[in-house]
Design brief:
Elements (H helix, E strand, L loop, with lengths): L2 H16 L5 H17 L4 H15 L6 H20 L12 E6 L6 H14 L4 E5 L7 H11 L3 E3 L7 H12 L4 E5 L8 H14 L3 E7 L6 H11 L4 E5 L7 H10 L4 E5 L7 E3 L2 H9 L4 H11 L2 H13 L4 H14 L2 H7 L18 H13 L3 H5 L2 H5 L1 H11 L3 H20 L11 H11 L6
Parallel strand pairs: 1-4, 1-5, 2-3, 2-4, 5-6, 6-7
Antiparallel strand pairs: 7-8
The structure holds guanosine-5'-diphosphate (GDP) and magnesium ion (MG).
Length: 455
Amino acid sequence: MFERLGEVIRKATDKIANALFLDKDLVDSIIRDLQRALIEADVNVALVKELSDRIKKSALDERIKGIEKKEHIIKILHDELLNLLGEHKQLKLTSGRNVILLLGLYGSGKTTTISKLGNYFAKRGFKVALLGLDVHRPAAQEQLKQLAEKNKLNYFIDTKEKNPVKIWKKYEKQLKEYNLVLVDTAGRHTLDAELIKEIKSLEKEIKPTENILVIPADIGQAAKQQSSQFKDAVNISGVIITRMDSTAKAGGALTACAETKAPVYFIGTGEKINDIEEFNPKSFLSRLLGMGDLETLIEKIKSVTEEKSQKKIQENLEEGKLTLEDVIEQVKSVGSLGGFDKIKSMIPGLSGIKAKIPEGMIENQEAKISKWQHIVKSMTREEISNPEILEKQTSRISRVAKGAGVHTSDVRSLLKQYKLLSDMIKSGSTADLSQGLSQKQLQKFAKKFGKKMRF
Ligand code: GDP
Ligand code: MG
């Protein structure tokens, strides 16, 4: 469930982590992907819009810069998604007696869920009984019986009696010996007056400790209406969403329940007895993100962004100048991220450009960087801050190459890299560099230099 949404969110966080600049274009493209994935998961469009507006607003908050900004955006993204999933509320059973009514329409998964819950709590030491009060469907009690026998759970049914209250009364005394009684009730096609009446009379007689509404995930956003209708008509303490495994609309059902403030206790994730899990929005989201908690996520960003060097490059960029050391730092950090796709994604606007990098170039990067470092060491201060003078004097290049123990072509390659990046800065010199270059400027740059990029 939610594979695609998870993938989109993971990609978005990677993009944020790897970006040199978090400009409007990058934020927009991330938000667009996220919106598409959420809507595909059937999350309400208005909710998606609200969420993306909030993310955008804080992502473009100019008071926060550099790495803090990355952390900030990831945190906002995380918090907004968590908010969408609703509050965490656990189904708390007492050590005394617990009687739970499972309510819901036809085919929502009540009977299956009763057996799953019975098994779940029996394993946790509860003395469990299943009670079949679905008197309307002839096969309902038989289904409960089969599930109970298969899973060695105690059950009480009466296939002849058509009045559920009478069945309850018949077993009431016996059921006192159990500390968890799970009551299967009848559904209808819709929540009509007859069903409300039946539920109310059961409630009055049984005095359950919990009324749980069972909603199938495949109804998606319609879960909102169903949840609020049931909440208005009878007391609902929480919800169980079934069939999370068999629909692309699970996001709709989950977020709809959060909207009606009906806590989701459990989710059903398959037809088998163990296919049920407690719903915890935080861990659900962590799994969706494909990693641990928020801290882990932020750690990841820190590890790909060396704060100091990034800050320095940023400062130099803001002043419109770049030193050779910056170039090396940048190529080094690109190298530690690995892969040309990553390199491209670091520079907003370049991700869509197909620049050809000869194979093997990237593999040789480390050797190249170490050469470059030697080169810079054998340069004078003047040459470092003003590399253009080298280009004009071949004798300087030869001297530096000799001193560094490298070929003159190595020195030229560093100068070329330097020129490439400083031209990039010049071409965007009118831009607010703290916000990154505009899409247009980058495209212009990429067009001009894309094919020449060599790392
Ligand atoms: P009831 O009418 O509310 O009692 O619904 P049932 O318990 O009879 O379930 C209706 C159908 O949904 C059955 O075919 C179940 O096997 C199926 N079902 C229930 N829960 C899940 C679930 O979590 N995943 C899947 N894939 N199927 C489920
Ligand atoms: Mg049933």
